[in-house]
From TrEMBL:
<dbReference type="GO" id="GO:0016887">
    <property type="term" value="F:ATP hydrolysis activity"/>
</dbReference>
<dbReference type="Pfam" id="PF00005">
    <property type="entry name" value="ABC_tran"/>
</dbReference>
<feature type="domain" description="ABC transporter">
    <location>
        <begin position="4"/>
        <end position="215"/>
    </location>
</feature>
<dbReference type="GO" id="GO:0005886">
    <property type="term" value="C:plasma membrane"/>
</dbReference>
<dbReference type="InterPro" id="IPR027417">
    <property type="entry name" value="P-loop_NTPase"/>
</dbReference>
<dbReference type="InterPro" id="IPR003593">
    <property type="entry name" value="AAA+_ATPase"/>
</dbReference>
<dbReference type="InterPro" id="IPR003439">
    <property type="entry name" value="ABC_transporter-like_ATP-bd"/>
</dbReference>
<dbReference type="GO" id="GO:0005524">
    <property type="term" value="F:ATP binding"/>
</dbReference>
<keyword id="KW-0067">ATP-binding</keyword>
<dbReference type="InterPro" id="IPR015854">
    <property type="entry name" value="ABC_transpr_LolD-like"/>
</dbReference>
<dbReference type="GO" id="GO:0022857">
    <property type="term" value="F:transmembrane transporter activity"/>
</dbReference>
<protein>
    <submittedName>
        <fullName>ATP-binding cassette domain-containing protein</fullName>
    </submittedName>
</protein>
<keyword id="KW-0547">Nucleotide-binding</keyword>
Amino acid sequence: MALVHLTEASAAFAGRRVLGPVSLTVYEGQRVALVGQSGAGKSTLLDLLYAQARDRAALVPQELGLVPSLSVFHNVFMGRLSSRPTWYNLANLVRPFRRERQRIQPLLDQLHLGDKIFSPASQLSGGEKQRTAVARALYQKAGLLLADEPVSALDGPLAAGVMAALAEHYPTSVIALHDVELALRYSSRMIGIRDGLIVLDEDSHRLNVQDVLPIY
Ligand SMILES: Nc1ncnc2c1ncn2[C@@H]1O[C@H](COP(=O)(O)OP(=O)(O)OP(=O)(O)O)[C@@H](O)[C@H]1O
């Protein structure tokens, strides 16, 4: 089943086309890695996909979108604000419900962030902020994950752990990654972007790093 679909889509800034035309269908169960040079158009493509699938997608944007004054717990809780009544959200803001803590704590533990649950986001390192945004997406439990460089601030083993967590919670995803090896390891389909166009679209298991490098 197709979860998101673009037909001859394009995007421009100040009259300059930066993406497209691109046509892309992402099917249920596909873990898509988006790779390409800085400025190739990966974030722009993710934006177009999100615009099509806003009601069924969790987004980890490159800028993360955290509220600095709120705790990690509350930032993660925000992943499901729209599915809860306002009174519930406000009450949980003042005094976290035990059942919400019981849902959020294991996600943070999995991301090695468990001891930061009530730290304000403003006091986190770059990598901790990134993992908070990832936890928010895990908590959201949407049908599709869209993530823009979700592990760029993490070192090797931690990056692999976060990619494994994303794969475990989200069978269908589109993730922009600059680390080609990581992209190959955690995706089933590899899409390469160059100058705003799709120049590679292949099963990841058919590719190795050398096959992907020419798009850079
Ligand atoms: N708000 C904007 N205004 C003007 N130009 C923009 C804007 N956002 C992106 N662009 C341009 O669009 C092109 C594609 O940018 P995009 O962010 O999609 O690339 P990217 O592949 O995600 O890059 P990176 O890997 O550095 O995040 C670039 O040339 C960029 O300069």
